Amino acid sequence: EVRLVESGGGMVQSGGSLRLSCVASGFVFSNFDMNWLRRAPGKGVEWISGISISGNTTYYLNSVKGRFTASRDNAKATLYLQMNNLKPEDTALYYCAFGGTQVGSIKQTYWGQGTQVTVSS
């Protein structure tokens, strides 16, 4: 059974930082590109970052570029998202996911349950 379990969310003030983790199991983690997506209150799902199998290539939504950094540890089957200089508009439920057919797509096959990030002004 494929499982993705996110953690690391919480409440921070504007300008603060958080590091999200996503522990994967039930599939060969090192064989798949991985993604981070989010759903803000009252809005649809938004893709924010992707990372290649090796971790050498990363992609970001323009609004998070320079503030968020995706990484992975294939030995630990874990995906990370370091989020710095957080803004109130980053408030959302954050998901890790994989199985999509193209970079930037919200159409991912497998999703975690999400971890909540709340940024106060």
Chain-wise SSE layout:
Layout: E1 3-7, E2 10-13, E3 18-25, E4 34-39, E5 45-51, E6 58-60, E7 68-73, E8 78-83, E9 92-98, E10 110-111, E11 115-120
Parallel strand pairs: 2-11
Antiparallel strand pairs: 1-3, 3-8, 4-5, 4-9, 5-6, 7-8, 9-10, 9-11
List keywords for this structure.
121 residues, mainly beta, 7-stranded mixed sheet, 4-stranded antiparallel sheet, globular
Give an overview in words.
With 121 residues, this protein is mainly β. Helix content is 0%, strand content 50%. The protein is built from no helices and eleven strands. The model has no long low-confidence stretch (mean pLDDT 97).
Outline of this structure?
It is built from no helices and 11 strands.
Roughly how much helix do the residues carry, as a percent range? under 10%
Q: What is the end-to-end distance?
A: 40 Å
Beta percentage is: over 45%
- Biggest pleated-sheet summary: 7 strands, mixed
Question: What would you call the structural class?
Answer: mainly beta
Helix-strand topology string:
EEEEEEEEEEE
3D shape: globular
Q: How many separate helices?
A: 0
Radius of gyration: 13 Å
The total beta strand count reads 11
Q: If you average the pLDDT, what whole number results? A: 97
As residue ranges, the low-confidence spans are none
